Amino acid sequence: MHQMKKFTSVSDVKNLQEIIKKALQIKENPHSETQKGKGKTIGLVFLNSSLRTRLSSQIAAQNLGLNVLTLNAAQEAWNLEFADGAIMNGDTVEHIKDAIEVLNQYCDIIAVRCFARMKSKEDDVNESILSQFEQHAKVPVVSLESATRHPLQSLADSMTITENWREDRKPKVVLTWAPHIKPISQAVGNSFTEWMQEMEVDFVIANPEGYDLDKKFTKDIKVIHNQDEALKDADFIYVKNWSSFDEYAAMPEVKENWMLTGEKLKTTNNGKVMHCLPVRRNVELSDEVMDGENSIIYQQAKNRIFSAQAVFSEILNEINA
Amino acid sequence: MHQMKKFTSVSDVKNLQEIIKKALQIKENPHSETQKGKGKTIGLVFLNSSLRTRLSSQIAAQNLGLNVLTLNAAQEAWNLEFADGAIMNGDTVEHIKDAIEVLNQYCDIIAVRCFARMKSKEDDVNESILSQFEQHAKVPVVSLESATRHPLQSLADSMTITENWREDRKPKVVLTWAPHIKPISQAVGNSFTEWMQEMEVDFVIANPEGYDLDKKFTKDIKVIHNQDEALKDADFIYVKNWSSFDEYAAMPEVKENWMLTGEKLKTTNNGKVMHCLPVRRNVELSDEVMDGENSIIYQQAKNRIFSAQAVFSEILNEINA
Amino acid sequence: MHQMKKFTSVSDVKNLQEIIKKALQIKENPHSETQKGKGKTIGLVFLNSSLRTRLSSQIAAQNLGLNVLTLNAAQEAWNLEFADGAIMNGDTVEHIKDAIEVLNQYCDIIAVRCFARMKSKEDDVNESILSQFEQHAKVPVVSLESATRHPLQSLADSMTITENWREDRKPKVVLTWAPHIKPISQAVGNSFTEWMQEMEVDFVIANPEGYDLDKKFTKDIKVIHNQDEALKDADFIYVKNWSSFDEYAAMPEVKENWMLTGEKLKTTNNGKVMHCLPVRRNVELSDEVMDGENSIIYQQAKNRIFSAQAVFSEILNEINA
């Protein structure tokens, strides 16, 4: 029986194939462990908006019999201070470390969403918020997306690729950058990149010049600055925007149109289209692609329940051990 | 055993007397079906504020053993796009149809509150939001009030009239317009009108000139522009404001005072006073009426639990069939 | 078996030692009464922000098997009117008394947070909001902090002192004012003062001139305007800011530095430091004190679960009687 101490990146997973298998079994029978979390409490702390993560985490926790506390931290509780040693004579009312210590008293698992704030590269790269949870939490911490990673999404993505691939050869998986109107973090791109390196896939990243992801995540993965070239014969196309990492949070001009269209999809190997949602239709990808039969995007969304449930279940193994 | 595929208007009810009877039985014994919704999930999606609907729907769902997910869509999730084919390069982050498709993956029943936006008559008349739920939802949809109707309210209203009428003759029921300070939708008025036509009552509508409801709802119901005349000998008086339908969302000047007062109540047949709440005291009706013994307004509010529970129960009959 | 009709101040507690004992027993075994609240509903109504109170009340209620409805009144429902007899032709949409009457229909227990609004001394002193709940609620009312008191906090504080005192003599307990940047209500200070008078402790209050609490609460308790003198040999130091009561909500200038520091702590009898949280670090007390081994602040926070659970349990005794 696998156990997990925390879940903030792929490195918290001992055996990726095992947890994907487990998540797929849970999908077959989501109510097989309804007593496992009995009498235990998970706190879902949102510092940012959420639809899928919020609902899928609640369902996953309920399927395991956990009590669920959902907290919209900024709106329902207090404006948080993040700086160590701060003299709190300004707008902030409670220090994040005090909030975490209180959550320690109330919860058996703390799950937190803390997006990149996109103001300081250093803060975001160092996970200035999640790191405080990792440092101060005395119970297992689950990331519901942090500044640099979105591991529950990546696990659901890995499940979805596994479900959709029956051939003997490795599939070609392309992560392709997409246009957007605002600077968006690299978290989903980083995280998917990290997980694909652990999967049996041929993985390629396509993005415009100026948009290369952090080398810490891409390592020796091939990065192509020409979308057409990258898409050729792709079996899976993961569409996602991110802003510049080098010139942090900037949006250098892109001359070509990187929106994924039906036309472009034709050059792939009847490729399945993925996106983590929410998606800006007709900006990141066309209606035609979104609503077309190659999209497995809603299946990804559904798998968010089972990826969360697999993780919570392994953490409960650890707690109950 | 009755089944229901969806609940967005009176036309989704096969037998009105049967469902009123069922709701009254549930009121006697609200915990008789605590296992019926076991392992199933209802999503309560609020695009607008709610007190009674929010709480009564949660209680009803819990009484049936359903898991409840409550989502304040705008504040907790993402700003939604409603236009088909939109190029989403503005403020909207997620298309309503993608949100609905995700809810399809997560919920066994989707309940949604989507008020009239009062900006375009065409949009509101065509139920521009609810219709997207009806079109894209793959699970039963329940209206928690939409642009033109509030059927869970009307079912509770019908229950309340039934509970309060013991005589052999048909009661005289008057829906009377009341003053307000802002343009309010016609949903409650329309819906009550629609339901009263299915009930064994003598139904009359009183409103100032310029405030006639949509003919689609009023059909051949008598509309009187003189409140005193309408109130005479009324057994039930339903007080409700709405803005102009013809000159959409306008508030044509009204010379007479249409606020329901104790004085006016004396001209009725010791009539019971109804309102869906929230009510603007001393604008729509006087404190004296609100707090007087003829008010059955809080009883209406209580019946919201049982009207919701009856509907959810019939929908679960359909799902479990 | 003790019963409780409501819980808004220490005077609702028949036997303080008994309820502290009960709360400590619940802490040993929080899941000993999981069926007690079965089929019953508690409404947690928040007119103000909350972290600890929100989460601890939810956990306490869930431990007792209660259904929990949490309502952020202003954001999720309607803007409330508080004035009796108001002509509601302004910003307010629903009168508090109507909201309460509806909660009466939906809940077996109503718990409410209604801070001092700090605009009118008279309104706050008279508990203009809580008093409406006490007047109109037909089910037991629990204060989650009102204009002048925070009794669930004070019960948790009393538990915490009990847990941390093993000597035969009475401990010296000092409530010491602390600096802040905004006018804060006297509720926590008042309430702690009220409870300490019922405990076997030597109780002293220290605050700057101009900051004396309402005589109604302090009665003949010693109030010292010199912090150093008050702290001497203290066994427990409760740190808390409040604004002026006499010159209501003002913040008269304070020349000395009242922030609790490690240096000041040395003059106590190895005193335990308490605070209700949220705390402004390095304004009310120093990081050194907050993170030091004398702090029992997180233990106080944890005890909030058990103080709430003891109260809800006694109220359920009353309801089930």
TrEMBL record, chains A, B, C:
Binding site for N(2)-succinyl-L-ornithine: E145, H180, K240, R280
UniProt pathway annotation: Amino-acid biosynthesis; L-arginine biosynthesis
Any Gene Ontology biological process: citrulline biosynthetic process
Domain of life: Bacteria
Positions with a binding annotation for carbamoyl phosphate: S50, L51, R52, T53, W78, R113, H150, P151, L152, Q153, C276, L277, R304
Occurrences of domain Aspartate/ornithine carbamoyltransferase carbamoyl-P binding (ranges): 5-163
Alphabetized UniProt keyword annotations: Amino-acid biosynthesis, Arginine biosynthesis, Transferase
Domain Aspartate/ornithine carbamoyltransferase Asp/Orn-binding: 188-313
GO-annotated molecular function: amino acid binding; ornithine carbamoyltransferase activity
Pfam families, per database record: OTCace, OTCace_N
Known partners and oligomeric status: Homotrimer.
Free-text function comment from the UniProt entry: Catalyzes the transfer of the carbamoyl group from carbamoyl phosphate to the delta-amino group of N(2)-succinyl-L-ornithine to produce N(2)-succinyl-L-citrulline. Is essential for arginine biosynthesis.
Protein name as it appears in the record: N-succinylornithine carbamoyltransferase
Gene name tied to this protein: argF'
